[in-house]
Each structure stands twice: as structure tokens, then as C-alpha cells.
Amino acid sequence: MRIDVVFGATSLTPALVSGRVVAVIDVLRASTSIAAALANGARTIIPLDSIDEVITRAKAFDRSEVRLAGERKMLPISGFDLGNSPSEFSREVVEGKTVLLTTTNGTSALVSVQGARDAVVAAYVNFSAVLALLGTALRGGADVTLLCAGRDRQLALEDAACAGRYALQLRARAEEAEMSDGAAACALIATQYEGRLEEMLEASEHGRALRDAGFQRDLADCAAIDAYPVVPIYQDRQITRLGPDRER
Predict the structure, then answer these.
(1) Beta-ladder partners of 68
(2) Which of 81, 126, 142, 201 could be a cystine partner for 137, CB 3.0 to 4.6 Å?
(3) Rounded distance, CA 24 to CA 120, Å?
(4) Would you place residue 3 in the very low, low, confident or very high pLDDT band (cuts 50, 70, 90)?
(5) Is beta strand 2-7 parallel, antiparallel or unpaired with respect to 144-148?
């Protein structure tokens, strides 16, 4: 069994996806918003690469059944219902709806993991729930890939720290599992910021940019461990919540 961390979808090889359990991490903010949406009753979330794809796919739905969501350069997209702040995905707004989502980094990472045995969306806000699934898979002999979405094709501190937290906890549950150098490096980052998640988000390049753009609240929301205890499963190009009607 092996735990690998990959930095950005462009670094993902077929060997790191095929037959594996892959967790996609985009702490600021796609992973967090996806978990919030599902916890608040969204029926499904469809990640898409482009704004045009969202607009085209929306035509297949009655307008009352769908929510258009996403951002470019952190800012909400003109004409869309929602941006990418977790607090926007409230029960009043998304319950029973299909959310068509496009973001700068997170959704492109998600659509890159076709062929995985299972693909999940991971963050701090659903840490324990996702960890349980990954731990079961690892102990069952599956390899695990933690894919950090990053920011503008660069390593993002917040994603690396989150991946490191997962790697450390997975290794504690399966001591015989081997960690890649990337996983070991991320584990060191996670240890450095243990108990100081919001401080870490504030210090990160993306966190500073969000704060300067007026999204200070999002940093606290994204640091809230287990605030949304759901396991978002990505399958058949859509994300749904793991539950009694969708067991693995």
C-alpha cells in the first residue's frame, strides 16, 4: 500500500489514478464549497472546465432545478447564481438543486481523475469523514493518491498542509503503508501548522489574495475541521454525497 501526493493535475500520471482511490484537495475553496453544498442538500454537483460549458449544460435543466456557480480570479462570474464562497451554498439556496460548478483550479483537477477506482473531494471541513473512507481503502490494500489542486499550476500551501494531515493520519492507521517523498514533505508542513490552520490559511499566498479581495470570512470557513461531515464521491462526471443510497 502506498500514499502519494501529487501537486497539480498536470503532474498526474495514469499510474497515479488507475485502480487507486484519489482524493482531490482544493481547500481554498472548491473542495470546501462542494462539501458545504452537499451537506446542505444539493442533489448533485457537476464540475466543468469552462464558463461556456456551464451555460451549455444549464440548457438541459429547468432553470428552477439548477444553480450556476463558480469563479474566475476569485471573483463570482457575471450572470451566475453563486460564486465560490462556502457560505453561499446554504440549504435555502442549494437544497434539491443540481449545481453546475466551474473554478479556476479545483474543477480542472476533478475532471482529470477519470479512471480512479474511487474519487472523493477532500478538505478540512470533511476531514474525518473522508479519512475514514481512505483509511478503509488503504487497509484493504488500495493505493491512495492525494491530488493537490494548487493555484495557477503552482504548489499551494493550504492544499499541501491538508494533504499532509491526511497522509499522517492514514499512516497512523496503516503503519505498513509507504509514503512518497511528496507525502512525507506534506506531512512536515502539516506538523508545522498543527493547531494553527486559520493562521496557515492567512499566511498562504492564496489566503492573502482572498483576504485582499474581500473574502476574509472564507478563510475561517475553510479552516473549520469537520464542519460538513460528508464524503463527496465523484463518479460519472458528477459529485454526490456518499450515503445509504450510494454505498461503496
Answers:
(1) 100
(2) 142
(3) 6
(4) very high
(5) parallel
Contact 3, 182 (CB under 8 A): no
Calpha distance 178→243 (Å, rounded): 30
Beta bridge partners of 109: none
β-pair type (66-72, 75-76) = antiparallel
- Measured between its terminal Cα atoms, the distance across the chain in Å is 19
What is the pLDDT at residue 150?
Answer: 86
Instruction: Examine the pLDDT at 72 and tell me if it is beyond 70.
Output: yes
DSSP state of 65: G
Coil/strand/helix, residue 14: helix
Neighbouring residues of 80: CB distance < 8 A, sequence distance ≥ 6: 54, 68, 69, 70
What percent of the residues of the chain are helix, what percent strand, and what percent coil, each to the nearest 5?
40, 25, 35
Query: Contact, 147 vs 12, CB < 8 A?
Result: yes
What DSSP element (H or E) covers 98?
Answer: strand 98-102
